[in-house]
Design brief:
The structure is a single chain. The protein has about 500 residues and is α+β, with helices and mostly antiparallel strands. The chain folds into 3 domains: about 130 residues, 434 Repressor (Amino-terminal Domain) (Orthogonal Bundle), CATH 1.10.260; about 130 residues, no CATH class; about 180 residues. It has a 6-stranded mixed β-sheet with strand order 5-4-8-7-6-9. A hairpin with a 6-residue loop joins strand 7 and strand 8. It is globular and about 85 Å long.
Amino acid sequence: MVLPESTIRIIFGLKLKELRTNKNLSLAVLAEKSGLSISYINEIEKGKKYPKAEKIMALATALDTPYDKLVSLKLTKNLAPVTQLLQSPFFKELPLEMFGIDGNKLVEIIANAPAKVNAFISTLIEIARNYDLSIEQFYMAAVRSYQESNENYFDELEKAAEAFAKKHELGSKKQLKADLLQKILEEQYHYIIDSKKLAENPELGRLRSVLLPGEKPKFLIHNTLSDSQKAFLFGREIGYNYLKLKERAYISYMLKAESFDEVLNNFKASYFSSALLINKNSLIKDVQRFIVSKKWDGDKLLNIMNKYTTSPETFMHRLTNILPKYFGLSNLFFLRFTNAHNTDYFVLTKEMHLSQLHNPHESAFDEHYCRRWVSLEVLKETEKLRKKGKYEKPIIGAQISKYHGSENEYFVIAAARPMVRTKNSNCSVSIGFLLNNELKKRLKFWNDPNIPTKIVNETCERCPISDCKERAVPASVVEKEDKMKKVEEALEKLSTTASSE
């Protein structure tokens, strides 16, 4: 296997440092013996430089080590795990630069205790396998962390969307209709749009879109898509082209990601699309008018939503771009739940937490989320209306959620509707705000007496509230913990009795 130059530099640096420390030589002493500067040897050991042959010979002589042994890529038993990590897919796929992490420094940390660090990373990989976590899920988690570390606001993408809108004179449009964006794709980027082929193929019927690249890209979209869904997909395609994003997925969702850049570019193109469809300055004005009202009005929020050619999910997600940056509301989370018709089982399919990890978050244990959350209540209301044939518009709800056994309180806004293409499911999207002084200052209706306050928890299995009428299943995790606590108390009592005899 041919190793990258950067890996060869790192391996050489690790060997040099190990040989030097094993012989109890300081950097200064090795520099004096080899005739090289302290700073140059330090750069070599950190994997930043690879010396020329004559300088390697000088180092080998100073260390009383054969030249061939020093340049060999074979590491000692102690450092062997480092090579395994450097060549592992796990290490190669870590998007270190995106988080401002120097890969060489990370390797230096690993080199100080290679066996232990390798065991730790191997444990993480094993956990991922046990919970059936795919590389795509790892990529998605990395992108979420990227969003969270930037408070989900990206100025370069905002400016790109503004520049594109200005170039095509889209600023005067109250709503960017799908057909207008389709026309731009066809005329400027020479796309051919086909809305029939996907529906004709049963195996591809679940896909919203497929791109067949070429000199004239063919963009297949499903004929059941709503205007807002088409507008988002067309906007995303424009984003890929306008931002010159080369590595990309060619279907509407991540079936299999080939690289982290592919997932990151999908996020960037999607962000561009939502910024194009929901003008930042217009949305800021809408939000300013909405939050000064002293009474909560879900219909007013729905009217703002309907002003733009977007789904509730795109609109609510767009709010998470604007609220932290322009309103100082950065302690928030975004959740997307789905549930199948005629069932009482809810699945958290998307989440993002800014500033700190709020609950609820995705459960790997297939547990039942607290039914008291407004995110689930609007879903239940949607299902009732759907069954009666009375559903007309998204169900909007608000709630103050107090965490059981905690001082944390959240103001949560949720919107739910039947899914357009997945005919047997409903979905809800929610934004939850930590109820702190900043929120109380900004959101004038936070204490509207018509907004219900409920004690909530994460999942039924982990909730000790004994009189919960909404409970879906017994508190099995709490019961198990109680039993273990009683065992520990009994053992402690036994130990105390034995020591006193």
